[in-house]
Specification:
Layout: H1 2-20, E1 30-39, E2 42-47, E3 53-57, E4 61-66, E5 69-73, E6 87-92, H2 96-99, E7 102-108, E8 117-126, E9 129-138, E10 153-155, E11 160-165, E12 184-189, E13 210-213, E14 218-223, E15 230-234, E16 241-246, E17 282-284, E18 290-295, E19 308-312, E20 317-324, E21 327-334, E22 341-346, E23 352-356, E24 359-366
Antiparallel strand pairs: 1-24, 2-3, 3-4, 4-5, 6-7, 7-8, 8-9, 10-11, 11-12, 12-13, 14-15, 15-16, 16-17, 18-19, 19-20, 20-21, 22-23, 23-24
Organism: Bizionia algoritergicola
Keywords: Signal
Protein name: PQQ-dependent sugar dehydrogenase
Length: about 375
């Protein structure tokens, strides 16, 4: 009886070990410097033209960091902080120097008293206050679910605003239904108007801002520096985190196809591909819980140039994904064990800056030969 108990315990421990480990090797050819200390959850950040930073804290604070000093910016709307929601991403208009527009994603309770949903807005910075605040999109209906808000935002060189909203925990309804918000990538003009060539503009009752659908919870979005395609990553369930290249009108399959399973271990579907659904270019199993995403175009890191960075919340490192075309051929850990990586940006100086929960924003320094 004891031997059976021992064997069962050994098998169980081996199974837990296998599920809890990530196999990527650690790249030690770098160090780091904390440049903005004492941040709890730096969900997003951008550099202003004077090289100061605007940083969002999920708790609802917008921080201006300049010359070593943090100043809290006023003028935000009420942020509905609950679950995974709060003040999330931030980006600048490509022509920010001329027009001054700053774009935000956040959880908002506007509309009814049944919780909240993801909102996209823009404003301008005047001294230490936001002015001309405009809500460009508000997902509906509100829900008391605390998960899967998305919500990354990018603006391309044609001034199209792309953003993500997760399935809001209602996987069996939202991602595959074009009449409902959630589980989608959206596209607007930079002023919030609907582009006339959006793929579902003439579909009956469809949300006109939808660009692609069948997504679970995209928390990474970036523009490929050469092809200009929109790359995203999204959280899978247990296993099956994905990297996808967004194309107009495409269905990315969730939850009809997935490489993951329920958190209990039970099957969601036995399909990883179906006709008419776009497969990911890469997936992780076990899940790394990805957040934040950036391409390296800088010559500061010669061996890394042209590759992709993805933060890992679960395993607490920055994943360096070596690319060959649209294929991830190798992965390495950077900043291993510093904390949950929430956001990553290549700064105007060419250095990589990374937002790490309960630490701050760190700058990656390449080791000199």
């Amino acid at each position: 009886m004891k031997s059976r108990f021992y064997i069962l315990t050994l098998i169980l421990s081996m199974s837990i070990f296998a599920c809890a480990q990530d196999k990527n090797p650690t790249n030690t050819n770098h160090s780091h410097q904390v440049v903005v200390p004492d941040l709890k959850n730096p969900w997003g950040f951008v550099f202003l033209p004077d090289n100061s930073m605007l940083i969002t804290e999920k708790s609802g604070a917008l921080i201006h960091f300049k010359n070593g000093k943090k100043t809290r910016i006023t003028g935000l709307p009420e942020i509905h902080v609950y679950g995974q929601g709060g003040l999330m991403d931030i980006t600048l208009h490509p022509d920010y120097k001329s027009n001054g527009w700053i774009y935000f994603s956040y959880a908002s309770a506007e509309g009814d008293d049944k919780g909240g949903n993801t909102a996209i807005a823009r404003a301008k910075l005047n001294n230490n206050s936001l002015i001309n605040f405009q809500v460009l999109y508000k997902a509906s209906p509100n829900t008391k679910a605390g998960q899967h808000f998305g919500s990354r935002i990018v603006i391309d060189t044609d001034n199209f605003l792309f953003f993500s909203i997760g399935d809001r925990g209602d996987r069996d309804v939202n991602p595959q239904d074009l009449t409902k918000d959630g589980g989608k990538i959206y596209r607007l003009h930079d002023d919030g108007s609907i582009p006339k060539d959006n793929p579902f503009l003439t579909s009956p009752n469809a949300k006109k801002a939808i660009y692609s659908y069948g997504h679970r919870n995209p928390q990474g979005m970036t523009i490929h520096p050469e092809t200009k395609a929109i790359w995203i990553h999204e959280h899978g369930p247990k296993g099956g985190d994905e990297i996808n290249i967004v194309q107009a009108g495409n269905n990315y399959g969730w939850p009809k196809v997935t490489y993951g399973v329920n958190y209990s271990g039970t099957e969601i579907t036995n399909k990883t591909t179906l006709p008419g659904m776009t497969a990911p270019i890469h997936y992780w199993d076990p899940s790394i819980a990805p957040s934040g995403m950036a391409f390296i175009t800088s010559t500061v890191y010669p061996d890394w140039k042209g590759n992709l960075l993805v933060g890992s919340l679960k395993f607490q490192y920055l994943d360096l994904c070596y690319l060959k075309g649209e294929k991830v051929i190798k992965e390495e850990r950077l900043l291993d064990g510093l904390g949950r990586v929430r956001s990553v940006v290549q700064g105007p100086d060419g250095y990589i800056y990374v937002g790490i929960e309960n630490l701050g924003i760190v700058k990656i320094l390449p080791k000199k030969e």
